[in-house]
Amino acid sequence: MEIKGSRFTLRTWQAADAPSLQKHANNPNITACLLDRFPSPYTLADAEFFINLNLHQDPVTNFAIEINGEVAGVIGLDFRDDVYIKSPLIGYWLSEQYWGRGIIPEAVKLVTGYGFKKLDIICIMAFVFSTNPKSMRVLEKAGYTQQAVLKQSVIKNGKVLDEHVYVAYRNI
Question: What InterPro entries does this protein's entry cite (predicted)?
Answer without folding.
Answer: Acyl_CoA_acyltransferase, GNAT_dom
